[in-house]
Amino acid sequence: MKALVTGGHGFIGSFLVEKLLKENFSVRCLVRKTSDLRWIKDLPVELITGDITESQTLPHAVEGVDYIYHIAGAIKGTTREKFFSTNCQGTLNLAEVSQKYNPNLKRFIFTSSIAATGPTSGTQKPTEDTPCHPVSNYGQSKWEAEKLLKEKFPTLPLTIIRPPIVYGPRDENFLKFFQFAKRGFFPVPPPYERYYSIVYVKDLVEGIYTASQAEVAKGKIYFIANPEFYSFESMARHLSRPFKKEPRFFYVPYWGVRFLALLGDLYVYVTKKETMLTTKKVPEIMASSWICSSEKAWRDFHFKTQVPLSQGMEETVQWLKEHRYL
Ligand SMILES: NC(=O)c1ccc[n+]([C@@H]2O[C@H](COP(=O)([O-])OP(=O)(O)OC[C@H]3O[C@@H](n4cnc5c(N)ncnc54)[C@H](OP(=O)(O)O)[C@@H]3O)[C@@H](O)[C@H]2O)c1
Question: What is the pTM of this model?
């Protein structure tokens, strides 16, 4: 079997590439001229240079593959346009080119996000059928991509995966939280009672792979997440355990988050670089809960996650220490 992986050199994509190689796939990765290839440079993969926002670079990438795992996406962005051009238009470009140049494709997997569903209040877990109300540009760009894929390409053998927070080795976005854990101190943004779903990266790629092989998953959407959800404090305690520390919490007032977000805006304005906390991110950060039910994946193709949070955190900290991030 042959697969194209977009974003195969990134955090989630690189674990998926390893999984596919283990399953004896021949793997092709779409990379940009500027991409950092450190996680896949020693792997036996074919590299094709291209960009999902430039359709003319995509035909070679999609030709002759059985599966497309579309993992590439913009997760940090300074503008709404950047999120939409990559996450929405880029996804539609790839779908269009694959329909034209690879009509026999077995499956097109699109990695969306829990951000497409939006936050929830309370502890009732949304399912894949819960109406979406994304609160950020990022979430809206993923949701728009989901809708337009289904509308414009009704014959595409599509499966949509919506991960919640993903953690594990190689991820630099979650690193801040491990640094807090090492210091034994966590700032908690309001509202103070909130819950999160989470998934270990190796579990997520098992889920993506299993969905891609299940006939029943064609045309459907799945959350892939640990069955339990966690409060901010319980997640922080799991994070702190490998450091043998009992965390202390500082409850940041609403105006404190706004102030830090304004500093983030200023940083972006001055440096033209991206950062995780800006005023546009505030609705996402202040939302009460980001939780989801992954029961459908169990019902449809018997997938459930295997790595408990404590084990995943332990492995991640080990990796971060070995690679001198901590
Ligand atoms: N991490 C999470 O917690 C999480 C949660 C839910 C959903 N997701 C989704 O999962 C996917 C992977 O995320 P990640 O955490 O692995 O992020 P990541 O490490 O930043 O990977 C994103 C990848 O997308 C590639 N990419 C971005 N724009 C591209 C373009 N125009 N053309 C081709 N490739 C492009 C990047 O390549 P360059 O190196 O060239 O920029 C990078 O390899 C994303 O779609 C994200 O929205 C992630």
Answer: 0.94
